[in-house]
Known about the structure:
heterodimer, A: 248 residues, TIM Barrel, eight-stranded parallel sheet, globular, B: 253 residues, alpha/beta, 9 strands
Amino acid sequence: MIIDSHTHVDRVGWIDPPETIIGLMDEAEIEQAVIMTYGDAPDVEGALEYIAEATVKYAGRLIGYARLNPWAGERALRLLEESMESYGFKGLKLHPAGNFSHPGSPETVELIRLAATYAAPTLFHCGDEEFTLPLQVAAAAAACPQATIILGHCGGYFHVQDAIRVAEQHPNVILETSAMPYPQLIREAVARIGAERVIYASDGPGCPPAIEVHKVKLARLTPDEEDAIFHGNIRRILGAVRTGEAKR
Amino acid sequence: MIVDARVYLGDSLYGRSHTADALFAQIERLAIDLAVAVPAKPHDYHLGPANDAVAAAARRTPQRLRWLCRVDPWQGAAAVAEARRGMEELGAAGLYLDPWEENFQVNDSIVYPLIEEARRCGKPVLLNAGHVRVSHPTQVRDLASRFPDVQFVASNGGQINISGILQAEARRMLEACPNVCIETAGTYRQDYLEEIATEVGVDRVLFASGSPHYDQEFELARVALAKLGDDLKARLWSGNALAVYAPDHRPSW
């Protein structure tokens, strides 16, 4: 059983219709995947609706996250509410390098706190670019201890050790394996923070899920650890989301 | 046939190291036929003895190992002399320049004499590329454009960025510089590699692992699982690397 915690579907820029990721999921024997656009709402018109349509078309296989621009302020907050309550999305995605918002900025923190009222996780792009460094995302984790903060890409190429340190310091931080190229550092992360705080993802379709599954297997973990990383942890996180219940 | 176009050999200052015996055991296990080795940065910072050690390993097993001579452009005339020694006396298949670990910008004028030496010897130059402060694709392009008759290889797909934001710049570099190939090691987005191979040129992508910095077994999967035809994959696995580093082994296409 595998759930891919970070994939993309979009119709602008990098064009990846839902059928692309579904095909790659089938190839890698992945049951479910979290999807989001490459661009932010509301900057990209219809982005959330496109994700919502995909989750309806592939109900049971695709799970929506709302990718939002914190600078949109009140509008972003309303869109997150709509995503959670009307579309049944399960999380928030933030890519601070794309919209120049610091992870600890008031606008960002307000969005994360709203997501947390639904028990919904916030997935950060967390790599080597400004505003995405693990020690910068740590500001969001510290400001929102009630929120689950996922470090997508686990710090990228040069900041994986920082990502592990941040996870050691903030119990609400989860590390996500996509695209970073170091199987041995997945093993190190598991040893230092525990398998229950690491989740598998591919960042597909660009990074094929099958290759990313292979990478986690090369970390040579125990079967129980693999089960937790491939599906148990994200199932636990998303299972707690109270879509449609919480209010601001 | 599989050629790994970049592995590091020797005790590295930065902690990840291959001995020759360990490297040979690993490539044997992974069915890699030939590796192109570069010296890891040694603890004492002296590249000359490190070149000697890798050259000796290659002499012992020339059918399994080629090597590149590593020099530091900041050493000026001494670096040029070492490059000449490596390529003319020790049998190096080319030069290796590491602007990330030796701390220079790849298009700095201190590099030019070394490229001229490689040109004089008719050898390729491998650049540790994609590091945005020192070997950004625009900097690789600037260097390669100044030496259009020298074959360059840019490691890491020519771009290291986990947003994919550097891919367009790396492709522009490749389109502007037909004398540059890229390696597969560590590259973000496998479809970028497929795009370069199919849209820019079948001869422009080489399999390399960058082991032990990157995981050799995982890096093999990038090519093994690439959505490319068998003929094209054969070019990535070995044909392109042989053409660059071991033309005496070049198969007929």
